[in-house]
Specification:
The protein has 357 residues and is of the alpha/beta class. It has four helices and 20 strands.
Length: 357
């Protein structure tokens, strides 16, 4: 049987209509796929920007000094760009509260992350801003006496030893000398005993027990990991101290003869010898023993025999010969600890997408 003309005329429009419908469906599917890809790319870029912002925030808190910001407390405004893989973060620290009397300084830390990787052509760089309220927390150190000797101390001669009374009058008096009961503090030649409250304090029965009671991260300090030293000897050299505002942290590996007066924090992993008319203002931390000959001393705080905290066995080796001035000075301790301060974030004070200011 043969088809009539009318039946043959319907086939072509039907085929064309089918092709049109299929083309529309394909175009719609392609558009939906492209839209979904763009949405996914935008979401991924937003996550990347958030990660960059958060990384910048945390990096600045942990490594502020490495970006050249060493003022303590931080300045009214500090800003830098921290570049990381995939983008960068513009970080701004802005002071919101200043209470110099109480030593409290509040800041808001803002980090604006920008992703430089575009997942799709024609898309803008993803950006995200996070912020956190922070407070500057100065460094602190447990001070038991003008001279704290974990291994015991012998004073030779009848001249003065030093005092645990705060030279700047801001803190209560500590012991003139703090030692374990065995070995303790001995003095030959009679003369002037240490001054303080009490003059001599027996902290614990033995050196090991006393070392365990001291809240000092000696392992981190002696290795340079707890605090980044300004100078490490060797290979560094002794500074001139011509700037009265320069209070560095100096790490000396091994035994050391103090070459002259100075200020700051002196960390000696071995033994320390002080001779002549030398005065150190600040903190002295010694791993082994300290021998002081002549008319000299430390105004701040001195702690010796710290290698006992690392398991070392040290005999009573701290010796003070001549006129001594090992005195407690809380102001000099605070200045020496200035570089040990850090920014600390307030609990529940973190904000996402902080407005630009």
């Amino acid at each position: 049987m043969t088809r009539n003309v009318a039946e043959r005329g319907v086939a072509l429009p039907l085929v064309l209509f089918t092709i049109l419908v299929l083309a529309i469906l394909i175009a719609a599917g392609s558009a939906a796929l492209g839209s979904e890809r763009r949405v996914n790319a935008n979401d991924e870029a937003a996550v990347d920007a958030f990660a960059l912002a958060q990384t910048g925030l945390e990096t600045f808190i942990a490594q502020r000094a490495t970006y050249g910001f060493t003022a303590t407390p931080p300045a009214a405004t500090e800003s830098t760009r921290i570049t990381v893989a995939g983008g960068y973060a513009d970080v701004i620290l802005k002071q919101m509260r200043s209470d110099s009397l109480a030593g409290r300084y509040g800041y808001v830390l803002r980090s604006h992350g920008v992703s430089t990787q575009r997942a799709l052509s024609g898309t803008l760089q993803a950006e995200r801003t996070v912020s956190e309220y922070t407070v500057w927390t100065p460094g602190t150190m447990q001070v038991l006496g003008g001279w704290t000797s974990i291994t015991g101390l012998h004073k030779s001669g009848g001249s003065a030893m030093g005092s645990g009374t705060d030279q700047c009058g801001k803190q209560g008096a500590v012991a003139g000398v703090a030692v374990p009961t065995n070995p303790g503090y001995t003095q030959s030649g009679g003369g002037v005993a240490p001054r303080g409250n009490p003059p001599v304090k027996n902290v614990a029965a033995t050196s090991t027990q006393m070392a365990d009671s001291l809240k000092i991260d000696w392992a981190g300090l002696s290795s340079g990991t707890a605090v980044t030293p300004d100078i490490t000897i060797p290979p560094g050299s002794w500074p001139s101290f011509s700037d009265p505002n320069y209070w560095p942290t100096i790490l000396v590996n091994g035994n050391f003869y103090l070459p002259g007066s100075g200020q700051g924090t002196l960390i000696v992993t071995g033994s320390l010898t002080i001779s002549g008319t030398i005065t150190w203002n600040g903190i002295v931390l010694v791993g082994d023993n300290l021998t002081s000959n002549g008319t000299n001393g430390v105004n701040g705080a001195t702690i010796t025999g710290l290698n006992v905290k690392l398991g070392a066995l040290l005999n009573q080796g701290d010796i003070a010969n001549g006129v001594k001035s090992f005195n407690y000075n809380s102001c000099y301790v605070a200045k020496a600890l200035g570089r040990w301060g850090q920014l600390v974030g307030y609990t529940n004070a973190w904000v996402d997408n902080w407005p630009t200011y």
